[in-house]
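hiii, so i know i said id send this last week but things got crazy w the move. better late than never?? heres the sequnce for the chain we talked about at the cafe, plus the structure i predicted for it. fair warning i was half asleep when i ran it
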Amino acid sequence: MLAQTIPLLDHGTVTGAVLLLRDISDVRRRDRLLLSKDATIREIHHRVKNNLQTISSLLRLQGRRLSSPEAKAALDESVRRIRSIALVHETLSHEPGDELPFIEIVRPLVRMVEEGLISPEHPVQFAVTGQAGMLPAATATPLAVVLTELLQNVVDHAYPPSADLDAGHVSVDLGQSNEALWVRVTDDGVGLPPGFSLDSATGLGLSIVRTLVTTELAGTIGMSRGAGPHDRPGTIVELRVPIGAVVREEPATGPVPLYRGSP
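okay and structure toks below
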């Protein structure tokens, strides 16, 4: 019960009062139901994350029993894809509602690539700048997989061991413009091979990227040669995904860069 008292005044003197009573039992009941529903959804995301981690562990165990380098590499790629999806569910398990700050997905993805793919003999430094706002899970999940594939593609192809290159530098830039989210991945590696075309690329990673961006996210993707020197021009990959009114600005978290990996 909610009570409110309104005094009755006569020339500045209180002569009485009006007592307003409102039964808010239904409001409280709905609030409790919403809290219970939110807790249930968070628990579901937490369990999905745990199940995905279990699948990753099983794949890693299976990989240890394989003798084929190609089969091991394929399982490792699958594990990274599953982990990128698990990161989204882990973040959602701590966030109210069905939206999450995408930057909280990008930073652990970059760390995952650093820890799993970078070797001391061929160091690559990553930097993340900008903001991507709050994204619904339906957008954040495929976008996380796409970013994982792009970062893995950079490590695998931009700095080949045979090229004997110095330490590489990769930047992941996030931003919003004209109701669209854009993600730009820039490296200073050996650049695209002559005659390269994204539309005709047959590798599994780029095929996944192209399909998710153009079909599931209804966005666009472009890959172009960088402006570096002839032996190391680099590559620029830019994604644009329409997000309309679902994106909200994140609270300010300080100056960029928000994350800078170790060299």
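btw Residues 99-263 form a domain with the Heat Shock Protein 90 fold (CATH 3.30.565.10). thought thatd interest u
miss u guys!!
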